[in-house]
Write a structure and sequence with these properties.
The chain is an alpha+beta fold. The chain contains twelve helices and ten strands. A five-stranded antiparallel sheet has the order 1-2-3-5-4, with helices on both faces. A hairpin with a 4-residue loop joins strand 4 and strand 5. The protein is globular, with a radius of gyration of 21 Å. It starts with about 20 loop residues before the first helix and ends with a helix. It binds adenosine-5'-diphosphate and magnesium ion (MG). The site of adenosine-5'-diphosphate has 17 residues, from strand 2 and strand 3.
């Protein structure tokens, strides 16, 4: 694998203050750093959608297309929320490894990384493509996409575990996971929903002690693009060595919250959640930590279902009535958390129906 560190050549700009959404500044930067030709005129388009990064599509006259991603120090959310721009280098490390671990074609290769401007460039996903979250919210649920979503995650978890001697030290630092997931999703939610505080605090302690394999940390349909019916995974800044049950709970929450929101597709999304777990478990195979995984994934699903209505980052498509219903449903279930995903899905639907 390519372990080259992409250092840039000298330039005359104040690189730490470079704003890649400024087209003139970005074009000048790309020329000065030698990433494009001195007289090249790339087409630059700011991409919408992210809250914690700037992302710009660079289309070169030679047909190459890159996405440049630059981490923001202050996230674009309503409350003040800060995170070190250094996390872009975690994402770059993630890209280098995921290309080897995930199924072919599911990861955009890294093109270059700049440690001064805190940015990276990766291959752009070709057009036409669709964001999977948008497809799902419009009711376009395909089991083949769910299968790919499950197999992609299982490949990362299983293949990274096999290479744990190399990967565990490289992804050892959980600080971005703690500041961008544990605090805003679990710890903050424990304050907002005191009935769940015991459950959430025990889960925090347990999950931080599980150092099992590579965890994506943002495994959500929003970070999946569908091109030619194939899923491509983006957005790896929270990747770390930790607890695979978190990825399962985080992702199952998206399927189940859509089961809640899209009443006419409720049964289909519930079936998709069960199918997702089954395909994942089969593709993962038997590893030393799989015996207890389903039980713990069910707990993370409950925690994330609650966090996405009561934490710092609520799902924007759920209205206040839906948020209240989801909160009440989860609080009813966590008194006696189920140990299987199938039971969890049944109980969640049952509790929603009762409210
Ligand atoms: N390699 C890529 N090819 C095409 N579009 C991309 C690529 N990377 C990011 N994008 C677009 O930019 C959006 C934000 O990127 P993402 O990596 O998810 O950043 P954030 O961390 O801000 O959410 C994505 O939802 C997608 O629409
Ligand atoms: Mg994203």
């Amino acid at each position: 694998m390519q372990r080259q560190v992409y250092r840039t050549v000298s330039w005359k700009f104040d690189v730490p203050t470079l704003d890649i959404e400024n087209p003139d500044a970005l074009a000048a930067y790309l020329r000065a750093t030698g990433h494009i030709d001195p007289d090249e005129q790339p087409r630059l388009t700011t991409l919408a959608g992210g809250v914690s990064n700037r992302t710009v599509l660079v289309e070169r006259p030679n047909g190459d297309a890159w996405v440049i991603k630059q981490a923001l120090e202050k996230l674009r959310v309503q409350v003040d929320w800060f995170s070190s721009p250094e996390r872009i280098h975690r994402e770059a490390l993630g890209l280098r490894w995921l290309v080897e671990l995930a199924p072919p074609g599911t990861i955009t290769p890294l093109v270059f990384e700049d440690f001064d401007a805190h940015l990276l460039a990766m291959q752009a996903v070709p057009q036409p493509h669709a964001n999977w979250k948008s497809l799902l919210l419009s009711g376009l649920l395909k089991l083949d996409h769910v299968r790919q979503f499950a197999e992609l995650l299982a490949a990362i978890h299983a293949n990274a575990y096999r290479r744990r001697d190399e990967l565990a030290p490289a992804f050892d630092d959980p600080s971005f996971f703690i500041s961008l997931r544990i605090e805003p999703y679990y710890a903050y939610t424990a304050q907002q929903a005191p009935e769940a505080a015991g459950f959430l605090n025990a889960l925090i302690e347990d999950t931080l002690a599980q150092r099992l394999t590579l965890v994506h940390g943002d495994y959500s349909p929003k970070n999946i693009l569908v091109h030619d019916e194939r899923l491509i995974l983006l957005d790896h800044e929270v990747i770390h060595w930790g607890d695979p049950a978190f990825d399962l709970g985080f992702s199952l929450t998206h399927l189940l919250s859509k089961a809640h929101h899209l009443l006419e597709h409720r049964a289909a999304f519930a079936a998709a959640a069960n199918y997702y777990w089954q395909v994942y478990a089969l593709a993962l195979g038997y590893l030393p930590w799989t015996d207890d995984l389903e039980r713990r994934a069910a707990r993370h699903t409950l925690a994330c279902l609650l966090a996405r209505v009561a934490g710092r980052s609520p799902l924007e498509y759920l209205d206040s009535e839906e948020r209240e219903r989801q909160r009440a449903a989860v609080l009813a279930i966590i008194a006696q958390p189920p140990t299987s995903i199938a039971t969890l899905v049944d109980q969640f639907l049952h509790e929603l129906d009762n409210r």
